[in-house]
Amino acid sequence: MLSSGFRLLRGKATLPPHHRRRTLADWKGLQDFLRVCDCSRLVVIDDDPTGCQTMHNVDVLLEHSVATLQSQLQQDDKPFFILTNSRSLTEPQAASITRTVMENLFKAKQQAQYPKQLRIVSRSDSTLRGHFAAEVNSIKASTLGSEYDGVVFCPAFFEGNRYTIDNFHYLMDRHELVPVSETPFANDPHFGFTTSHLPTYLQHKDKALVDRSVVCVSLEDLRGDRAVDIVINKLLGTPKDGVVVVNGKLKRHTLYTIHHTPYTIYHTATKYSDLVTFTKGLVAAEKGKGKGEGGGRRFLIRSAASILPPLCGIPPLPPLTKDQLSPMVSSRHGGGGGGVG
Predict the structure, then answer these.
(1) How many Cα neighbours within 13 Å face the side chain of 126?
(2) Cα(199)–Cα(216) distance, rounded to whole angstroms?
(3) SS3 66
(4) pLDDT value of residue 263
(5) What does DSSP assign to residue 76?
(6) Looking at the DSSP assignment, which residues form a beta bridge with residue 120?
(7) Architecture of domain 7-315
(8) What is the DSSP string of 81-115?
(9) Counting beta carbons within 10 angstroms of the beta carbon of residue 88, is it exposed (0 to 12), middle (13 to 18) or buried (19 or more)?
C-alpha cells in the first residue's frame, strides 16, 4: 500500500504544472541553511564508477594514498569522491580496501591539519547490491568512523527510476513499479536478496540489527510544516548503532501500476524536495537541535546517488546536450559508454 502522501486515482489524471520557482527556492534555502549550519566536508567512498553521475564540479580520486588525500584536503573545501570499485571485489577485499581508505584519510587529515569534520558517504548501488555490512562496519570501526552514532540508508536514485515508498524499494519499468527483489538484480550471484522491504533487507545483510535498530523516515514525515522537526526527533531518537531508512518519492509521471494494478500517482512537490528536507533535519540533529536525549547525533550515510546533491547543496544539472559535449568528445576518435548504479 502506498503512503497517504500520494493521491491514488484509477486511470489517468492531469498533473499540476512544474513549480520551477519553488524548486529553485528550495535549493536556495538549503544552500543558505548549509552555509550557516554545516561546517563539514563531504567525502564519498564510491564502490563503483557511476556514483558521481548526479554531481558536477567535483573531483574523483582513482587512488587513495595518504599523499593524494592530503593534497586534496589542502586544495579547497569542495566535496570529492574516492573510487574503490569494491563492488567488484570479494567481501574481505572490500572490507580491507575500505579500512585502508579510512586509515589514510585520517592520516591525511592530521598531516594537512585540516580543521573541518568530514562527512563520510558510502555510496553504493540503487538496486541494493554491494557489501553493505562489510563496508559500513569497516568505516565505523575506523578512527574517523568512531564519531558516528548510526547509519542513514537512502538507496533512492530518481534519475535511474529507483524509489523507496513505505519502506519498500522499487524500480520503475515502463510505468510499472516493480519491487526490486522481483528484478534480475536480486538474483546477483554475489549480492542476492529476497525482499524489497528495507528494514528486513538490512537485518538480513547485518545480523547485528534487530527490529528496534531500524528507524524509518516516511514520506509523510518529510512533508508538512513540521517536517524538519520530525526528522530531527527521529534521528535523535535512533538507538545507538541503529539504521535510519529514508523514503524517496517518485518523479512526476502520470500512470503507474503496482503489482499489475493501475494507479495515477499525483503529488505537487518536486522530486528532490523530500531529500532536501531530510538533509536539513540531518544537519540540525548533528547540532543537537530539537527534542531528544544526549545532544547531537552524527550519522554515516550509505546511499545511492540522489541524496548527494542535497548533502552538498548542489542542484543536479540536466543531461548535457550534443553542443555541450562536442568540445569534449572528438567526432572521429574515441568512444563512449554509460552506466547506471
Answers:
(1) 26
(2) 8
(3) helix
(4) 41
(5) -
(6) 43
(7) 3-Layer(aba) Sandwich (3.40)
(8) EEE--GGGS-HHHHHHHHHHHHHHHHHHHHHHT--
(9) exposed
Provide the residue type at 55 as one letter: M
pLDDT tens digits, residue range 234-248? 999 999 999 999 998
Q: Which residue has the higher pLDDT, 133 or 14?
A: 133
How wide is the angle at C-alpha 76 spanned by C-alphas 75 and 81, nearest 5°?
85
Phi first, then psi, for residue 312 (nearest 5°) are -95, -10
Mean pLDDT lowest among 174-178, 270-274, 302-306: 270-274
CB distance 214 to 242 below 8 Å: yes
Give me the pLDDT at residue 228, please.
95
Bridge partner list, 245: 153, 216
Please state, rounded to an integer, the average pLDDT across all residues of the chain.
83
| pLDDT for residue 266 | 33
The CA-atom distances, in angstroms, between 249 and each of 194, 274, 305, 306, 326 are 23, 7, 14, 11, 34
Give the number of residues written for the chain. Answer: 341
Tens-place pLDDT, residues 158-169 = 988 999 999 999
Distance CA 236, CA 284 (A): 10
Boundaries of every domain in the chain: 7-315
Q: Calculate mean pLDDT across residues 91-116.
A: 98
Q: In one letter, which amino acid is 104? A: N
Give Cα separations from 259 to 120, 139, 166, 175, 177 (angstroms).
37, 38, 15, 12, 8
- Assign 151 to helix, strand or coil: strand
CA distance 230 to 282: 11
Instruction: Determine the pLDDT at residue 294.
Output: 53
